[in-house]
Amino acid sequence: MTPFATLHHADEPLLLPNAWDHASAHALAAQGYAAIGTTSLGVAAAAGLPDGAAATRDETLRLALTLGSGPFLLSVDAEGGFSEDPEEVGEFARQLAVVGAAGINLEDGLGPTARHAAKIAAVKAAVPDLFVNARTDTYWLGDGEGTLERLDAYQEAGADGVFVPGLSDVEEIAGLVKRLDVPLNILYSPNGPTVPHLAALGVRRVSLGSLLYRRALGAAVQALTDVRAGHTPNGPTPTYAEVQAFSG
């Protein structure tokens, strides 16, 4: 079992913060997190490109190259693999592994189950040690119908873990945990179960997705509003030297 896979089988679930650039990744790692993920929304928005449209392949690979040698294990949000050709997705995964990625997140976007399963199988064939977190969007884009069938297919294709963003019902989460043979990843929501509650349900990985990126944007706008109104911005502000240090 790889070090990254081991984090999914520890006493506590893996709480995975998602970064969008070098500084954010190193700032999060400095808080003691052994693994850092990327957020496709943050990567896309920073480049002025749409998320979920297979438009950020180069940006994603470039960020992985920047972060892959960092003092943390890196999991890359690769949308749907930036191709509908499983072999091309496998090759992209191989490139991510070469620059240091320990994991990849692949979403089905409610495309055909068989096609996504083929992508997963291609990645595992190309890079057996790369942790594949197979995401289904049955709750993110739909009403949950077909979740078990998709997850069963993704497990059979070789997924090391499965991800069901948008699912927050505690009974349904507990039911999935009992049915799965691999770790379940849930997307944290401020309106959903807390991390301790998810841990008690058997969830093994909790992702923050784009939450930190969106909060950072919100904090920047709020700070500007406070300054304009004659108030001192609240909240921690890293010094110039601290941010410089993240560049190592």
TrEMBL record:
It comes from the Bacteria. GO terms for molecular function: catalytic activity. Pfam families: PEP_mutase (PF13714). Signal peptide: none annotated. PANTHER family: CARBOXYPHOSPHONOENOLPYRUVATE PHOSPHONOMUTASE-LIKE PROTEIN (AFU_ORTHOLOGUE AFUA_5G07230), PHOSPHOENOLPYRUVATE CARBOXYLASE. This is Phosphonomutase.
